[in-house]
Write a structure and sequence with these properties.
heterodimer, A: alpha/beta, Thrombin, subunit H, Rossmann fold, twelve-stranded mixed sheet, 17 helices, 21 strands, B: alpha+beta, Nucleotidyltransferase, domain 5, three-stranded mixed sheet, 10 helices, 22% strand
Chain lengths: 511, 340
């Protein structure tokens, strides 16, 4: 038990303690305050660290520093009894009492001058049962890793997840880890939309989801380009594209919008094929000359571009969506690598898939017996601010609003949460907050978080690569997380799989 | 707010300017108990002694603290303590005497003082203090010298014992106690040094120590030095030799230092040992053990408040009429100044 200091104040929400000189503790570190009178422990998180000294007068600091600066040149100096005179003051926010195996929110004070010590693994034992089956990393105290696995429950997928970080802080690593864990767990579906094409094989020097030992059995891959491994080609049917999809992807004038809706009304889910097949003049006639030729020309040009992309088929039966949905229902990870596709195509494919999943799950919802066994599905969307800027309109906003009921969750990944609509972001029950440079982004998350993280501004500002905070109503407090390095996690998975195989092998003595 | 008359300000300024410029030909204003002394000798630049940093050696420092915890005018409850800090190889050990409470009134003041004085000197005091506050002050002074005896008993030969204040037997009848301490130090080979934070040595109208500090800085710049002060005419009360010393080259302050060197050692040797102790940046130019012991024995406001609360609680327990006592202690100044 590393004794750090004693409590010196000051309220039930903010504790301060004096630490021994030279006893290093960190911002974000979780400490234990011993309530010896009641035989329980209070966990508290360091939110600030200040200088302290047993020194007379307010100007002692300036005077002493001045004397040292002068002494540097002449006469020298020797600060005597540093250990007795100097100290650090830790400001903490209490997390909760651990009393036996139970955890309770802190509503009372610990006794005056209670002892403060560094937390040990056993102090976090109560967390183990609250950690879910989708692993993300290890508990972190400051920058020290505590061997307690931190994760979220896949059952919480439909409650939506936000992953927010500035570029380079470890979003992709976290997402690969979550996907690998989902494969290992095998109880939840996960649709990973990968516009950067970095998840399958991994970026140079890094591994990808194809390296996950369970990938062959538990991952289905679609790609628009050739990948070094088994994969399917991205194809969606024109029948699956709705007018709203195009409206969300491209700018249209009022007249063009009306024309699009008229096409949809006239041809149903064949509207796009009809618009592509017929000449503009014919379409004007078919729409009873209600629209100018110029409007129809614009629409046709855009539809032609989509149809010529090679990703959209005219055949109702030729589409990836059925396979994607089946895989999700089989609790598999579906990776859709759109790395080589232009943004509007990538968004179109993502939109069609997301809607297909939601609508399919909605249909299953009507059959309670089937719905009971339907594994929750999570749809991950990179650069989510592109499709979540408003609370209405895109399928992704709709999933954020309605998906929970149908076991479909959205995992929004973004480096600019401030661009996501407030109503949408408030739907995310679980947030993975990694390093975020922009204060406005941090403010948005502070307000959206399901736990009070208003005191953690300093900690969030100092998050290093691979460090995160996890907030969720399913964990007792905002958990500091050291995300697994994906490659290390793979090694561990391989080792554990090897162990399992050995265990399951034939009993040599039997023969 | 009273009106400020510019003529009054100018007249005061003229007086201060003249006094500050007066040299050493004035006399008077001596107060033996408080050690207010006039130094008649003329300052000579040639008498400054340059000091080097001496060897670090074991040093102890003695100080006392006192306060009036409860003041009802005709009776008070004073509190005193004394203690010493020993510093050896950078480690400090504090030995502080338990707090002693002195309930005393105008009526029994002589008896109380008689008892305290006899404890220290085994004889009756030649006088009684004028006020209850001065009784408490004298009791603290006696406690300090008694603690110095304890410190000497614990120190090894060659050590240095620092006293907070001068080696001046100002309190009537106290000389045998100071002599006892000085003798014990001599016999044990311990150097005794008294360092005064606020000297009452004057030269004419001017305070001697800052005047010498100013001169020393002008003449020697950033250097350690000592200036011997001749107090032989006060030999009946003064112990050791007196200096004004500047103990760190960059220090803003100089101090009066009285030195009784150990047999076979010089005053300069003792002063240079003080230089070695005076380089803590928190208290540059002041011996660190004295700063440390000062903080150990200081009876600060919080402690006094705590004492007052304990005292009042005990008064109730003992059957005293706390309401009356609180009324006796009421002070309208506190109301005026916002404290009551």
């Amino acid at each position: 038990m590393e004794y750090l200091g004693r409590v010196i104040g000051r309220s039930v929400r903010h504790l301060r303690f004096r630490a021994f000189y030279g006893m290093e503790f960190q911002l974000g570190e979780i400490l234990v305050i011993e309530d010896e009178e009641r035989g329980r422990r209070l966990l508290a998180r360091v939110i600030d660290i200040e200088y302290g000294a047993d020194a007379p007068g307010d100007d002692w600091w300036e005077r002493t520093a001045g004397n040292m600066m002068q002494g540097d040149g002449k006469g020298g100096f020797e600060m005597r009894e540093r250990e007795r005179r100097l100290f650090e003051v830790g400001a903490c926010t209490p997390l909760g009492f651990v009393d036996g195996g139970t955890f309770r929110k802190p509503k009372v004070l610990v006794p005056h001058f209670s002892k403060v010590r560094r937390a040990e693994e056993a102090d976090f034992a109560f967390l183990t049962e609250k950690m879910g089956d989708i692993e993300a990393g290890l508990l972190r105290s400051g920058d020290r890793k505590v061997p307690i696995r931190v994760g979220i429950s896949g059952e919480a997928f439909p409650h939506h997840i936000g992953v927010f970080a500035t570029t380079g802080m470890g979003k992709s690593n976290l997402m690969k880890t979550l996907a690998a864990s989902a494969m290992r767990c095998g109880r939840y579906g996960m649709l990973v939309l990968d516009p950067h094409g970095e998840y399958f094989a991994g970026a140079p020097g890094c591994k990808g989801l194809s390296h996950v030992p369970e990938a062959a059995e538990r991952m289905v891959v679609f790609s628009s380009r050739s990948l070094p491994g088994a994969h399917n080609t991205i194809k969606i049917s024109a029948h699956e594209i709705k007018v709203e999809d195009l409206l969300n992807l491209q700018e249209y004038s009022d007249a063009q919008r009306e024309a699009l809706h008229a096409l949809s009304a006239a041809f149903g889910n064949e509207w796009m094929i009809q618009a592509h097949t017929h000449e503009s003049e014919e379409l004007v006639e078919m729409l009873h000359k209600s629209f100018f030729l110029e409007s129809i020309n614009v629409i046709k040009r855009r539809i032609k571009r989509i149809m010529d992309s090679g990703k959209v088929t005219r055949d109702r039966e030729v589409s990836m969506t059925r396979t994607v949905i089946d895989a999700l229902k089989s609790a598999k990870v579906v990776l859709v690598d759109t790395g080589s596709m232009p943004e509007h195509e990538e968004l179109l494919v993502s939109t069609v898939l997301a809607r297909a999943v939601l609508e399919n799950y909605q249909r299953v919802y009507e059959r309670p017996e089937d719905f009971k066994f339907l594994p929750p599905a999570l749809i991950t969307m990179e650069e989510a601010q592109r499709v979540l800027g408003t609370s209405k309109g895109t399928i992704f906003s709709r999933i954020a609003r309605e998906g929970r009921k149908f076991k479909v969750g959205l995992c929004a990944i973004s480096q600019q949460p401030k661009l996501i609509d407030n109503q949408v972001i408030s739907q995310f029950n679980t947030l993975f907050i990694l390093g975020l440079a922009d204060k406005r982004d941090r403010d948005i998350l502070r307000d959206a978080s399901k736990q009070d993280i208003s005191d953690l501004e300093n900690e969030i500002q100092t998050l290093m690569v691979g460090e995160a905070l996890v907030t969720s109503p399913f964990v007792p407090f905002a958990l500091p997380l050291a995300v697994y390095k994906f490659e290390d996690y793979l090694d561990e998975m391989s080792a554990s799989q090897k162990g399992k195989k050995q265990k399951a092998g034939p009993d040599k003595g039997f023969y | 707010m009273p009106h400020v008359n510019d003529d009054e300000v100018r007249a005061a300024a003229r007086y201060v300017s003249t006094a500050a410029a007066q040299d050493f030909d004035a006399a008077g204003g001596i107060d033996h108990e408080r050690g207010v002394l006039q130094v008649r000798e003329r300052i000579s630049k040639g008498k400054f002694i340059p000091l080097q940093r001496g060897q670090a050696r074991t040093a102890a420092a003695v100080d006392g603290g006192s306060a009036i915890v409860m003041d009802c005018g005709s009776f008070v409850v004073g509190a005193i303590t004394a203690g010493h800090v020993t510093m050896e190889r950078g480690k400090a050990t504090a030995h502080v005497q338990p707090l002693r409470l002195l309930p005393v009134s105008q009526i029994d003041k002589p008896c109380v003082y008689d008892e305290i004085f006899k404890e220290a000197l085994y004889a009756a005091p030649p006088d009684a203090p004028e006020s209850l506050e001065s009784l408490v002050g004298r009791a603290r002074n006696l406690a300090e010298w008694l603690d110095a005896e304890r410190a000497i008993a614990a120190l090894d030969k060659g050590s240095l014992l620092l006293i907070d204040g001068s080696l001046w037997a100002g309190t009537p009848g106290i000389r045998p106690l100071v002599a006892r301490v000085a003798d014990a130090a001599q016999k044990k080979g311990i150097c005794l040094a008294g360092v005064s934070k606020q000297s009452k040595l004057y030269t004419g109208y001017r305070p001697l120590v800052p005047a010498l500090a100013r001169l020393g800085k002008r003449e020697f710049g950033e250097a350690c030095w000592a200036y011997p002060i001749d107090l032989t005419e006060y030999a009946d009360r003064q112990f050791g030799e007196t200096f004004v010393a500047h103990l760190h080259p960059m220090a803003d302050f100089a101090f009066r230092v009285d030195v009784c060197p150990a047999p076979g050692r010089s005053c300069q040797d003792a002063l240079e040992s003080l230089v070695a102790l005076s380089n803590d940046p928190g208290y540059l130019g002041y011996p660190y053990p004295l700063a440390r012991v000062h903080n150990e024995v200081a009876l600060g406001g919080e402690l006094c408040t705590e004492l007052e609360v304990s005292l009042k609680r005990a008064i109730s327990t003992e059957g005293g009429e706390l309401g009356a006592i609180e009324e006796y202690g009421r002070d309208f100044h506190k109301v005026l100044d916002g404290g009551g």
